[in-house]
Each structure stands twice: as structure tokens, then as C-alpha cells.
Amino acid sequence: MADHEDPKTGKKNKGTSKEVCGYPLSIFFIVVNEFCERFSYYGMRAVLVLYFKYFLRWDDDLATSIYHTFVALCYLTPILGAIVADSWLGKFKTIIYLSIVYAIGQVAMAVSAIHDITDTDRDGTPNNMTFHVVLSMVGLFLIALGTGGIKPCVAAFGGDQFGDHQERQRRTFFSVFYLCINGGSLLSTIITPILRAQNCGIYSKQKCYSLAFGVPAALMVVALVVFIVGSGMYYKAKPEGNIMGDVCKCIGFAISNRYKHRSKQYPSREHWMDWAEDKYDKLLIAQIKMVLKVLFLYIPLPMFWTLFDQKGSRWTLQATTMDGNFGAIVIQPDQMQTVNPILILTLVPIMDSVIYPLIKKCGLNFTPLKRMTVGMFLAALAFVCAAVVQIEIDKTLPVFPSNFQSQLKLLNMGNHPVTAGLPGYGQVTLQAAQASEEYFTFEEDQISISVSGPEMKRNISLIKGQRQTLLIPLTISDEWQLTADLTTKPEEGNNAIRFVNGMNKPVNVSTSEVVFGQIEKFHYSNYSQIRNGRATFFLQSGQLSCAFSRDFGFGSSYTFFIPSTLSLGSNCQESITGAEDIKPNSVHMALQVPQYFFITAGEVMFSVTGLEFSYSQAPSNMKAVLQAGWLLTVAIGNFIVLIVAEVAKLPKQWTEYVLFASLLLCVCIIFSIMAYFYTYIDPTEIEAKFRRNVGDDDDDKNDKQRKLEMEMMKRDLDRSDDEHYKGKQTKM
Ligand SMILES: CC(C)C[C@H](NC(=O)CN)C(=O)O
Fold first, then answer.
1. Cα(77)–Cα(209) distance, rounded to whole angstroms?
2. From CA 411, how far away is CA 542, in angstroms rounded?
3. Which residues pair with 560 in a beta bridge?
4. With helix as H, strand as E and coil as C, how does 239-270 read?
5. What pairs with residue 534 in β-bridges?
6. 25: DSSP letter
7. Residue 607 CB less than 6 A away from ligand 1
8. What is the rounded CA–CA span in Å between residue 382 and residue 596?
9. Residue 646: what pLDDT?
């Protein structure tokens, strides 16, 4: 039998797997598994909201709430996975079983997105939506169970593969692990939206959500297979019974025993957990103390995630009000999120190989908790940048009417100039087929407008908080019409376009993607969303057929006017005039790069370090539990976003960014104080000492000797080292 195997069980011993450049070979399978799993998770997540909205036909609010509930669930389930792994199945089996659950969930999602299954009338839309909703909800539940369940196990299982002599390699492993997470996330967030945009279907073609979910499902199967292939090489730590149950009972006993002995006649004990000594093993008590120490330190951490996870919500919404034209490529608002994994892939190696060694060379002891504090500070700085960008955006946004105001624009549908008299604005002259450049703002409910050339006078009812366009007709006998205009920027950086038909006959308008439908004479169409770039509009009215093209930026709104003079042979490109109701976004999306840079630099210092810290400070039998505790801070952080945004309800977005930055700054100060008093421990060393002393405990020791030993052990618990974990006392 090889010396790296346990003689009794034949299983591998810790740190004895075949090594490549000082790293256990088994690590290779774990990082590839993580890469594929994160591809699967982030790929599916990238198209999820669009699937809810456009396939299941949910409204924005429902789609957003279910999306956030799903994300929160994904970070709550790690607790379950950790308990199962640490106390029952062990990490290896837990990863295998939950990966199967996860893959089934992904397949369920892919199947739920096949519209042909229930498309009995073959019109391209499902006929039994309940089937698709139920299947996708079951799929999402299984995915949340799977991805959350394995998450704390995979990181801790990877850490388990390193022996005590591989401390440095283990630290690098956590960085590489993080790179794989972001490599998978980057690739999938680029690929799955492209897959979704394809058309597929048996009877009728639709956007291919089944492919966008199917590829992540396949990657999850690959992740599972890769993990199983490495099976023979892993060190598999045995689960140590119902450890969570024992921990809870032990804590419960310590509290009740303390309460029973609250009278002054009983001497106090150094730590409240020491009250459990009357019944419980000292080793268990020492391990609980280690975990509680770390969990206490976690209390302020959710605030970091509160800011971090707004990349996907607030910052993406901010990008929708910005200009994404980068010359050769045009970036969509949601694609800005890929800046985060791109920066992670660049910053992690730079930090590990340049910044941290440089800091060390300068003689500074940049301990994990110091890094995390700096990470928090950088995240707060990112939100200050976001606030500055928001202020710039706000300067370019249209001023929409308040609840006490209404706004009116004029459009001359005639072939001759008209002059309109507006209360408070004097005479406004409009050429044929021309609209006023700006909206006029009124506080009255009704105004009287007189038009000369031809002479007309009308009382116009205005609506508070609304924008309208008054269509001044061709002749006195024609009807005066008021349109309802937009009072918000079009969503997702799209452009809202509508047509006013000034001809005496109906006209059909369409582009290759959008149908405006038939617009009756002297009437107007609804708004349709046009993506940025060049769009060509086709007009067709009886014999008349022509086309015209326009370039669009992001977030604009135009009213195109089809003049009464348009006839067979007319040049539409020149004849059709457009009124700019909402200007396109003019603040460039590149301005978001600094905030992405700071949040990602913060993430590298906070999250990569926190992942490794949670592993190194956990007792051997509670590694996965502490990883789950770490992930729980992410879930709580997500809930805080919903609560703060709902409670604060600040009128200006930039003030909300400043609020979040200030909150994190306060939390950062509190954390730095807590961290100052934290002393690093070496759980293995402490556990070994307690184990050595179990035998002695059985002997009949006198009280004095026992007391002396206890003091020594307690001192050990408080020990830390200069380079984090090697033995000398260090704070923070
Ligand atoms: C938020 C997670 C704890 C960390 C990680 N995410 C990223 O790295 C995003 N840049 C993940 O495991 O998904």
C-alpha cells in the first residue's frame, strides 16, 4: 500500500495526492468543475429575466421579484449543503448528489423553454402556459438547491486537498478558484445571450431560450463528469456526525447552564461557552468558539454585497440612460456587466503577483482582514463614482412635468406655416410639417390657443404630470388631436418611435423587425421600440410605397410626421420629418468603467480573501459550514438592497448611491475596529492540542493541574502570527 494512503481504509491522506509544481493534481478537476458550474449558473441567469418577460409573458415587477428571490435562494441553500456535507454525506458525495439535482434542474429549464411542446395551434406561442411556468419553477428550485448546496462544499473540498506544508499553494488555489468562477461567468454571459437571440422551433421559429438554457445544462453535466473523473485522486475528509446538532445543543446548554448559575456565589468563567464544560467535550467547545469568533466578524459583511450586487440592477439601469456606442462595437446596457469578470481576470493575477508582494516588500503586513477592510472602502468609492456619473446623466435628462405641471408640444400638420399664440409664451411660428422644438410647460388645467393662417381658436384641456402633443390640423373643419407622450426615458436604452399620418388616407408602416400597423388618416401610431443603430422604415399606402432610414442612439423618442404632400414618386428620406421628443443619451457608458474598476478591485480584496479566510479559520469539521456562513452574508446583502431601496425611496438616484456609499463606509469603520481585536488562529494546531489532552483528561488529575492546562489552551486559542497564521500574536 502506498504511504500516502490510510493503512486501515486505503483512502488518501491529506496533501498526499500526486503533485504538479507543488499543487495536488486533484485540484485540476476541482477548478475545471467550478469553471463549468459557474458557466452553467451565470449563463442561465443572464437570460432568465428576459425568459420570464418574453416567454412566460410576466410583467417587469413579477419578473424582477422572482429573479431576486431565486438569487437569494441560491445563497441561502449553502447552509443546507454544508450541514449535509459536514455531518452526513461528506463533501465529495454531497457535491455528486447535488450536482445531479442541479443538472436535472437545468434540463427542466431547457425543456420548459421549448414552446413547441404546448403550441397546439402552431402559432409560435405556448398554449398551456401553466406547464411552462410549473416546469421552470421546479427547475429553478432544483438549480437553487444544487448550486447553493454544492457551493460551500466545492471551495472547502478544494482547500482540503492541501496538506499543512502547502499553505502558500492553498492561498493561490483560492485565487485560481476565483478566476475560474469569473472565466466561466464571462464566457457564459457573452454566449448565452447570443444563443437566445437565435430563432428555433419545429413548427414555428421563436427566440431560442431552450438553447440558451440547454447549453448551461450540458456544461453542468460536463462539470459533474469532470468531478467524477478526478474521484480517485481526492482526499475525502470523513463527515463527523451531526455536528450542527451537537453545536446547537452545546450552545443551548452553555446558555442555560450560565442562567442557572447566575447568582454571584458562582465564580464567573472566562468565556460564556465555558459553561458548557460541565457536559461537553472541550474540543467541541474550542471549535465552537473558533466558529463564533468568525461569525461575529461576519456581522457587518452583508453591506459589502448590498453594494456589490447592484451591478446587476441599479448600475444596469444607469447604463440604459447612457450612450453605448464604442465606435467599432455597440455595447448594450446589460453587457456592461461583463466588465466585472474581465477586470477580475486581470486584477487577481496582478494583485497576487505584483501588488501584494510589493506591499510585503515595503514591510507592511497586509493581513486578510486589512485586505477586506480596504475592499469595503473601494466598494464605497465605487458608489461615489456612480453618484458622480449619475449627476452628469441627470444634467442631460429631459425635465419632465411635475405633478403640478403639464407640458405641451405643437405639430403643424398643414402645408403652410402657422402662428400659435400660447399663454405665457407669446407667438410661436411653425413651418409646414414642423413641430415645436421644446415642450411648453403650464400649471393651468386648461389653456386657450389661437392659431392664425388659417384662423382657429380652441380651449385645450391639459393633464397634470403628462406630456402631450397638439396636432394642429390642415383645415378649420378638421379635428384637433392631443397625443399622450412619454414621461420617462424608453427602457433598456431602446428608442421609442411613433408616426403621425398627415395624409388623407391610411398608411402602413413597418421595419424589418417592428410593425407599426395601419395608421388612419390624420391619426398617429403607438410607440414602438427600436434598438440603437440604423433603422429603415417602409411606408405603404395604396400604390404609394417608399422607405427612409434614420440613425438612432440610445434612449431617445421621436415622432415622425408623414406629410399630406407625400405621393407616388416622393422621396420619403427627405419628406418625412422627425420631432425629437426625448434626446438620445449623451453621457458615454465608458464613464461607468471607474466604478466597475473600484467595485472589482474591492471584490478581489474582499471576496477572494474572505473565501480563503473562512476556510483557514474554520475548525476541521466545520469548514463547509463556515463557507456557507460566508455565502449567507451574500444572501442577507441582497435582502438589504430591497429593504433600503424600499424604505429610503430617495427622489434622486445619486443620493441613493451616496447613501449606500456612506452606509458601507460606516460599516467599514466598524469592521476595522472588530478586525483589530480579532486574533488569527491555526485550528489544526488547537485541535491537535485538545486531542492530545483527551487522554490526560481521563486520568485522575487534581484541580490545580487541570486549571493550569486550561489556561494554556485558552492562550493558544488567542494566538496568531505575523504572516497570518504562523504563531506570533498579531491583531487584525
Ligand atoms: C458572490 C459570490 C460569493 C462570488 C462569486 N462571484 C463572482 O466572482 C462575481 N465576480 C461566485 O461564486 O459566483
1. 26
2. 25
3. 499, 578
4. CCCCHHHHHHHHHHHHHHHHHHCCCCCCCCCC
5. 551
6. T
7. yes
8. 7
9. 67
Q: In what order do the strands lie in the sheet with 533-541?
A: 515-519, 507-510, 533-541, 544-552
Q: How far does the centroid of ligand 1 lie from the alpha carbon of residue 486, in Å?
A: 38
Determine which residue's CA is closest to atom 5 belonging to ligand 1. Answer: 181
Does pTM top 0.90 for this prediction? no
Q: How many helices (H) and strands (E) does the chain have?
A: 21, 22
> What is the distance in A from the centroid of ligand 1 to the CA of 645?
23
Say which residue the cell 485538545 belongs to.
Answer: 690
Residue 645 is predicted with a pLDDT of 66
The set of cell numbers assigned to 581 is: 421628443
Q: What are the 10-residue block averages of pLDDT along the chain, 732 residues in total?
A: 45 64 90 96 88 84 76 90 86 96 98 92 86 97 96 89 85 88 90 84 84 97 96 86 83 94 87 92 90 92 90 80 87 82 92 92 90 96 97 92 94 90 90 92 91 82 94 82 92 88 93 91 92 92 92 93 86 91 94 97 93 86 81 87 73 91 96 92 84 56 47 44 39 48
- Report CA(140)–ligand 1 centroid distance (Å): 19
Question: Beta strands 467-472 and 406-412: pairing type?
Answer: parallel
- In the chain, what are the domains? 1-239 (1.20.1250.20), 406-582 (no CATH)
* Closest approach atom of ligand 1 to CA 305: 1
Taking CA 70 as the corner, what is the angle to CA 58 and CA 604, rounded to the nearest 5 degrees? Answer: 125
For residue 534, what are the CA distances in angstroms to 87, 493, 512, 525, 554?
Answer: 60, 14, 12, 20, 12
State in Å: Cα 173 to ligand 1 middle.
Answer: 15
| One-letter-per-residue 3-state SS of 471-536 | EECCCCCCCCEEEEECCCCCHHHCEEEEEEECCCCCEEEECCCCEEEEECCCCECCCEEECCEEEE
Question: What's the pLDDT score for residue 224?
Answer: 97
Q: Which three cell numbers stand for residue 66?
A: 422572482
Q: Is the ipTM of this complex over 0.90?
A: yes
H helices of 161-301, in order, are 167-197, 209-229, 243-260, 282-298
Cβ 141 vs Cβ 108: under 8 Å: no
For β-strands 426-430 and 418-422, DSSP reports them as antiparallel
What nine digits make up the cell of 48? 432568465
